[in-house]
Amino acid sequence: MVILVYDGECNFCSNFIKFLLKINKNKSLRITSFNSKWYNDFKMENQIRDNVDSIILINSNKMYIYSDAILHVIAQANKLFFPILILKIVPKPIRNFFYKLVAKYRKRISKQIKCTLPTQSERKYFL
């Protein structure tokens, strides 16, 4: 199972989740927010600090954060997007600098959206 943990109170992050669900062909992808019971239990079991400021991708025994999480979840959601992993040739500090820059201003970048509920077919991907 591939699990993506995101900030459910962030419009920018919610828009990314909508995009991900549109392209997703991976039946094992699951999505949850930092406020979910599943993530709180996982955090306790794995001694994860509370101040993670990134989406988290959990895939088998690996955890990805920052730009790695974005690249890997897009590539795993749909094989057509697998070539996005070529961006890993850009050094991680540079990729993460831009990730953190966007993350810092994400609430200003994204317009406020109305809270939309996932469709019936999308609900199966949420924990």
TrEMBL record:
Q: Which domain of life is it from?
A: Bacteria
One short Pfam name that applies is DCC1-like
Q: Please provide, alphabetically and separated by semicolons, the GO molecular function terms listed in this UniProt record.
A: protein-disulfide reductase activity
Where would one find coiled-coil regions in this protein?
none
User: What's this protein's name?
Assistant: DUF393 domain-containing protein
Taxonomic lineage of the native organism: Bacteria, Bacillati, Bacillota, Bacilli, Bacillales
